[in-house]
Write a structure and sequence with these properties.
288 residues, ph1033 like fold, 2 domains, seven-stranded mixed β-sheet, globular, PUA-like_sf, HNH_nuc, HNH nuclease domain-containing protein
């Protein structure tokens, strides 16, 4: 088993979420990536944002393959694909300079894909707060209940997909409280398409105590991804701020918009939590 760091350009912050939702990643160059390997995604300008397990060997793209949702799918020159499944998605608060010093990795992120030395693999797993995942054959199974990381032969894939959507939307009670507070409308975009509205935590998730309505925003799924990746935030005037890297995209129109607030002031987003999120967006201090 080998671990890899894959760099994602800062102009495409949603490509990681596309990959996790679609279950595959496309590349331009052939590498010796095999089923059972691990990949740590690095988003330029943000840092480590996701840890996934590779579930198929890297192979040539075929005519009948499902299309990728990449913004540059037609122009990016992608030739190869490997399949994957999510281990953990979270922003890791560590610079590449610090990681390089602590692991001895001297390769540049601009290389696009870096093979992680064996002795550094546990270091990266530790950054995501988890130990190395055991091989599937070693995982004890005491029943046949649904395990979100393992596919059982004969399982209804439609039911599996619905459960995955539910997990992405957020814990049921927390999401329900936000749907009520925000009147079933995205706090940023104003979208009223309920199936794509998700419960976004403002502060990082630390347990059930984080599920208070004041620590959340009801966001459209793509806006939720940008918020989690700190490419979009809320300033101290409760206005939406968008990273300069998105200024030439459809998200530019959101910059400067007033955040939609609940009618009940007790459900207003916590100002300290919003401030901490904004402070993590280093680009905000240099954006006029």
């Amino acid at each position: 088993m080998t671990a890899w760091i894959v760099t994602v350009g800062e102009d495409f912050p949603d490509h990681v979420r596309f990959a996790i939702d679609d279950g595959f990643w496309d590349t331009r160059r052939r590498r010796d990536i095999r089923a059972g390997d691990e990949v740590f995604f690095w988003l330029s300008g943000s840092g480590l944002v996701a840890w996934v397990e590779v579930t198929s060997d890297l192979r040539d793209l075929r005519a009948g393959d499902p299309p990728a949702h990449w913004h540059d799918a037609r122009t990016g020159g992608y030739q190869f694909r490997f399949e994957l499944r999510e281990r953990k998605v979270v922003n890791v608060d560590r610079s590449w300079k610090a990681i390089s010093a602590e692991t001895g990795i001297t390769q540049l992120l601009s290389n696009g894909m870096i093979e992680v030395p064996t002795e550094a693999e546990n270091y990266f797993r530790g950054l995501f707060g988890q130990v190395a995942p055991p091989a599937p054959a070693e995982r004890p199974r005491t029943d046949f209940q649904f395990d979100p990381e393992i596919y059982e032969p004969g399982e209804d894939t439609r039911e599996r997909a619905m459960r995955a959507i539910t997990l992405r939307r957020g814990q049921s009670a927390f999401r329900d409280s936000l749907v009520d507070a925000y009147n079933s409308r995205c706090a940023v975009s104003g979208s009223t398409v309920l199936p794509i509205l998700e419960a976004a935590h403002i502060d990082r998730f630390f347990g059930a105590q984080s599920h208070h309505v004041s620590n959340g925003l009801l966001l459209r799924c793509d806006v939720h991804t940008l918020f989690d990746l700190q490419r979009l935030t809320i300033d101290d005037e409760l206005k939406v701020r968008v990273s300069p890297t998105l200024r030439k995209t459809e998200y530019a129109s959101l910059d400067g918009k007033a955040l939609r607030l609940p009618k009940d002031q007790s459900a207003f987003p916590n100002q300290d939590a919003l401030r901490r999120h904004a402070e993590g967006c280093l680009w905000l201090s240099t954006t006029p």
